[in-house]
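User: I've been going back and forth on whether these two constructs are worth ordering. Before I decide, could you fold them both?

Assistant: Sure. I'll take them in the order you sent them. The first construct and its structure tokens:
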Amino acid sequence: MQFSSLVGELLGYFAGLCSAFVFLPQTIKTIKEQNVSGLSLSSYIIYCVGMLSWILYGIYLESIQMIIFNLISLIFAAIVLYIIIKER
């Protein structure tokens, strides 16, 4: 593997990790506080549909990175979405 390819792959993994774990703090806070008054139901629905679409696209492309990182993101967002629906 060439150096530029390796750098590109590492950058892709780093971006995927950041994107996947961006919802972790909100998920933890929402689980602890059970307060969803400031969270948008429609935003979380749209986000979850988008993440599911990225996962399906990753399956189509056979991109394990795309599937895994978007699945992690979907799980965190879906937990918050579930709490939003449950609390309202």
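The second construct, handled the same way:
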Amino acid sequence: MEMKKLLLIATGGTIASKISPEGLQPGITSEELLAYVPEVRENCMVDTVQPFELDSTNICQEHWLILEQIIEKSYNSYDGFVICHGTDTMAYTAAALSYLIQNNRKPIVVTGAQKPINLEITDARMNLRDSLRFVMDDRAYGVNIVFGGKVIAGTRAKKERSKSYNAFSSINYPDIAVIQEKRIIFYIEDYFRLTEQVRFYRRMNERVLLLKIIPGMDGRILNTLADEYDAVIIESFGVGGLPAYGRHSFLEAVDNWCSRGKKVIMATQVLHEGSDMEVYQVGKVIKDRFPIIEAFDMTLEATVTKVMWLLGNDLSNEEFKKEFYRTINYDILLAE
């Protein structure tokens, strides 16, 4: 069997960190990372590249676009890609790449660790080893996170634990696969359905606000921020709705945003099962009156990055809504 050729892209993060007087900070190179899992070279050829070396707290849209460019330019030269990344914003990066690189038959894995790879006791070597093994599997495709023995769709991952090795969970969707030693057990195996050509996108609009509603908040905050953003994702209570108290109505604020051509997306603070604004009056009146979009079962990370990607494509309101509700890398199931 022909050996597969892979590209390891190192970006920093805990997996590549060293101890310093100011705390952990990235300092282990891409080649050094690979040296900790020498056994994988028996089954594949791996090249490495390091476009930046950052704590993932400092990774944002410009870095997602750099990663997209690296993969686009080298797509025909490799069979798969592994990105080593910090855990704190890993779910955002995996979701963003799901929108920037679509219909990709070649697997792109984002991984990292809760402990640096140079420690004696660490999850880093297992996660990196699992990631390289997964991208070598002929059934693997698309953008996924590999972490703690689980393979999670890039749009469904969320970091739920700050220290434990099983840090990531798949939200409102099953794991794609699990990895046990050298065995990969697929729960979802539909790679054969991918028929379109890979498509790359090179633009995102970061002028997106995520607003978490708390009791007592009113519409003034939306009016104050309207000039600074092109879209707002409102993280509401329960299945979705907005408060209707005080002199500064949320309804008036939403009307202001919509009348100015800005996008309003309603999401929920509840982690599982998604929103359904048709259930209660506080949600239905907003959905009936305004041209808002509902996130339903999407994660907030996927919602944020999908809106950034869509805003970067200069779509009409109808096109924006249609594309938002189009399922990409398993991101939304409950759409209208």
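Notes on the second construct follow. The longest strand covers residues 4-10. DSSP finds nine helices and 18 strands in the chain.
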